Amino acid sequence: MKVTSVNEETNLDIDPAGSKSLDEVNGSIEVPKGAGFWRTLAAYTGPGVLIAVGYMDPGNWITSIAGGAQYKYSLLAVILISSLIAMLLQAMSSKLGIVTGKDLAQLTREHTSKGMGIFLWVITELAIMATDVAEIIGSAIAIKLLFNIPLIVGIVITTADVLILLLLMKLGFRKIEAIVATLVGVILLVFAYEVLLSNPSISGIMNGYIPSDKIITNHSMLYLSLGIIGATVMPHNLYLGSSVSQTRKIDRSDREGVAKAVKFSTIDSNIQLFIAFIVNSLLLILGAALFFGTDSSLGRFVDLFNALSNHQIVGAIASPMLSMLFAVALLSSGQSSTITGTLSGQIIMEGFIRLKMPLWAQRLLTRLISVTPVLAFAIYYHGDEAKIENLLTFSQVFLSIALPFAVVPLVIFTSSKKLMGEFKNHAWVKYSAWTSTIVLIVLNVYLILQTVGVFS
Predict the structure, then answer these.
(1) Where is mean pLDDT largest: 320-324, 340-344, 361-365?
(2) Which of 289, 334, 375, 406 has the fewest beta carbons under 10 Å from its own?
(3) What pTM was estimated for this model as a whole?
(4) pLDDT reading at 423 higher than 90
(5) Interatomic CA distance for residues 312 and 299, integer angstroms
(6) Beta partners for 29?
(7) What are phi and psi of 187, to 5 degrees?
């Protein structure tokens, strides 16, 4: 009996020599055949961790904690909805890479004109820069808080992340996954401990997950909500997910093997994104439990750091240890996010503009593209943290605006019978994804119009 490959049925031409995404690790990890559920899941666990860190990067911290400090638990509903959308989109992204053997950037470039491809590359590159603004600033400030190193020097130090990534790539992709998972564990434990000490209202938390119309009608709540969405549903993660899902060795001529890979990659993604949902909820709950009604200025990381050791603000639980744990978690978040951000930069650059250069130079270039604007702002403002951190909320709102440019192609491709064959989106997935995309676009247009005074 002849087995027709997914790619034969979908007429997708995969060039194994020149078009593999993240070529040095593509298909590098063996998966067991005929193993039980848990052993198979363990083999596929890893890419979801790399995706999840983008959903709990430093950009989430200011928006989520500020959301809790300003509106108590009301914006937990936004985190819940954003997380559900993220699970849906990331599952589609992983499936796209597994079934087609190409990432979202490659497929978008192949199915658009040269001009449109360059336009989408610019938008996506700006989105990565917006993401890195938060990651670089967060890491640099954590370094300053922990080691008293000047902010500008800390920003330069973050450039060395690319050298660490190159070393880890030599050791194997599983090492990267394990290190990032450890950093995620640190973040989760730190905030779970701090929230436990803050003694939040359980009933308030439960009610907070119920959506309120005030989120739409209140301009400042809407702006902050879009910041949370932008910080939660990350455009570059869709490109990353479609690539790292291909690190497992899959025989695309084996339909059952492809189906198994899609299934376990989705489970891995959902588990890790649930952890990210918990972390983001903890951040907002911490802001609500400790800072709501205190009239404290919490627009900066250093404000949060200082507040956690200030008895007048957070009460009896205040201690220098809480502040130091916060800084450790911030550094863990920034470092794990910069690793995945650099990988995303490579995927997007290779996929959209097909840039061919040595891997070390390519990764250094993607890092410098992101670091340069942050460093320029830092030098211009003479290392003033308040001025630099003003970029954070805006960067997260920009991510929300840029998201449709990644989501629309993703939904189109994964709903295509020609590309995906029997693995195309089910009707409920397709319509849910389109609904989410349309709602996001409408909210962004509404926000822009309200900002310029149309609805004032």
Answers:
(1) 320-324
(2) 375
(3) 0.84
(4) yes
(5) 18
(6) 248
(7) -60, -50
